[in-house]
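Q: Got a minute? One more chain.
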Amino acid sequence: MSETRFGKAQMAAWMGIIGNLTLAAVKGTIGFIAGSKALMADAVSSASDVAGSLAVLVGLKASRRPADADHPYGHGKAEPIAAIVVSVLMIVIGFEIGKSSLEALKSGVQQAPEWIALVALAISILVKEALFRYNYSLGKKLSSQALLAGAWDHRTDVFASLAAGVGVLGAMAGDLFNQPKLYMLDPLAGIFVSILVLRTGYKMIRESVHNTMDHVLHEEDAAELVQAVQRIHGVITVDGLRAREHGHYVIVDVKISVNPKITVAEGHEIAKLAKQHLMKRFIHVSDVLVHVNPYDPGYPYKNNVDPEQDEMPTLLH
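A: Always. Here it is, folded:
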């Protein structure tokens, strides 16, 4: 991970930690004073996001470490692993929120929350939406699974706060119109928040597990890589190319055919040029493994060169 990429990602993680800590403290305090189960559930959700942001930060730092003997392809998968941790935390917290709200629903609610609960939720929605937009934009730009997971965590909190707001507003309407049954809307909103958190956590963990597994880019996504190699002087044809996603970067395996009459040193130099060109042109390509084959004009599908023609491209002419 480059210094610039890491610096931006680290800043986003710290913004999430500070923002969630502040919101958790504010919503928790006001939720207790106002007597709102929905706001308390929302506060617990924000508190869980602090741990999630810390996991993102740890994952970013781990992915920055250079390749070593045990990890020759680097530590890029640390980011999707961090995203899995965030997802699991969301599922656990979602379950706890639902459990607490159900208990409140069974025991009964005697009064509506205070109006200040709505103010806290409005502030939470504005802050969380801003964090979502920042993290999502940066996550897309940097191809960071950990940041994207954190972004959707923030967006889930926006919807959770909206649901909590509806519950609080409904309960307050019950107080206004002397309808005590409407007080139940507050813990019901807490249950809805828990379902929303559980659903998002499940979707995130499914996607994060998929990203930890090696899978190749689709043919249309790798076409630009093939074209770039084909333009290298000395490469007659690209026999095959596979680009494996490894966290936020890509590792390329490519087979090229060169003039069979050139020296081993020339073939090696052509391969080196191909590798350098791919890594320089495509910032998401972290490593390239090039296998050099002698060009065989009689091989199936390789009829684009006249077999009688002695003039084939080499590195020297």
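A: The chain has eight helices and four strands.
Q: Perfect, thanks.
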